[in-house]
Design goal:
The chain has 396 residues and is an all-alpha fold. The protein has one domain (2-395): Amino acid/polyamine transporter I. The protein is 83% helix and 0% strand. It has helices at residues 2-21, 24-37, 41-66, 70-77, 81-112, 116-130, 136-162, 166-174, 181-192, 196-206, 215-245, 255-293, 300-304, 306-324, 328-352, 356-359, 366-395.
Amino acid sequence: MKQANNRSVLIGAAFLMATSAIGPGFLTQTTVFTQSLGASFGFVILTSIIIDIGVQLNIWRVIAVSEKRAQDIANMLLPGLGGFISLLIVFGGLAFNIGNVAGAGLGLQALLGMDVITGSILSAGIAIAIFLIKEAGKAMDRFAQLMGFVMIIAIIYIAISSAPPLAEAALQTFVPLKLDLVTILTLVGGTVGGYITFSGGHRLLDAGIKGTGAVRQVSRSAVMGISVASLVRIFLFLASLGVIGKGLVIDAENPTASVFQLAAGNIGYRLFGLVMFAAAVTSIIGSAYTSVSFIKSFSPRINQHENKVIIAFILISTVIFVLVGKPVSLLIVAGALNGIILPITLAVILLAAYKTRIVGTYKHPVWLAIFGLLVVGIMTYMSCSVLIGYLSGLIQ
C-alpha cells in the first residue's frame, strides 16, 4: 500500500512541476518563438530539455538527501541567503500568478464564452477549493495529473491536424539555421527557473519521500516532470510549425489561440480554451503552493496555517489582476527574473551537495555536479548578455 502511495506522490510531484511550468506564458512563448525561428526552434527546445534535466536532477536530489527545503539549505551555507532567495522567488511567483489568473480567465472565455474577469475569479475559486480539502496534497497531485493529461491529448490532436513538416523539424533540431540566446534563456527560465524547479522537490519532501534511500525514485520523478513539460512544448511547436508552413497568418494578439483555430477550426479554438484553462489553473496552484513553501520554515504560524496562506496568495493575485488588468509586461519581467534566479539557486544547491553537515554521507555524482556547473556558467553568461543588451537599449 505504501509503495502505491509513493508511486502516486512521485507521479503527482512530476505533474505538479510540469503543470507549474506549462502556464499561459509557456503556451504563448512556444508559439511566438516558432514564428521567429521556424524549424530551428526545435534545437532551442532540445537544448533547454538537456539543461532542464541537469537542473532538476541536481536540485531534487540534494533537497531529498538533505531533507530540507531550498531556503533552509541556503541559510545553512550563508545565514540570510535563504531569505534573499525566498524573497526573489515569492515576488517572481506572485508576478507569474497574476498572469496565470488572467490566462485562466482567457481560457474560459474561449471555451465557454465567459467574461474574462468572471472566468478568472471562477478559476481562482477552483484553485482555492483544492486547498480547502482536508488532504490538499493528494487533491493537488490528482488535479495536476488530470489537467496534464487533458493538455497532452488536446495538443497532440492539434499537432496532427496542422500536419507539420516533420523531416524539416527533425533536421533543424540538430542542424539549426538560426540561434537566439534570449530564447534559450526564456525557455529554461520558464521551465525550471524561479519557483518551478522546486515545486516537485518540496512536494516530495512534504509527502515524506526523502533520504538517500529515495534518491532513485526522486530522480525518476524529476525526469518525468521535464518529460511531460517537454512533450507539451514539442507538440505545440509542431502544431505552430504546421500552421506557419501552410503560409497562414497567426494573429499577434493571441498567437496560440490562432494556431489552434487555424489548425482545427472552431473545435480547435474551443480546445485552445480548454488547454489554456488547464495550464493556467494548475499553474495558479503550483505557484501558490511552492511560493508559500519558501516562507513557511521562517515562521511556525505560517507552517501551521499553510493552506490559509496559500489561499491568501491566490486571492492577492486575483485581486491585483482584477484591479490592474492584463499583466503582459509583468510576465515578461518575471520570466527574465526566473532565468536570472536559476544560476544563483543552482550554484547554492551544488555547494550544498558537498557539505557533510547538510547532506551527511551522501556522495553526489561528479558528472552531475560538472553538468550543473556548466549550466550555472551558461545561464550566467546568457543572463549577463541579455541584461547588458537590455541596459544598452535603455541608454540609447
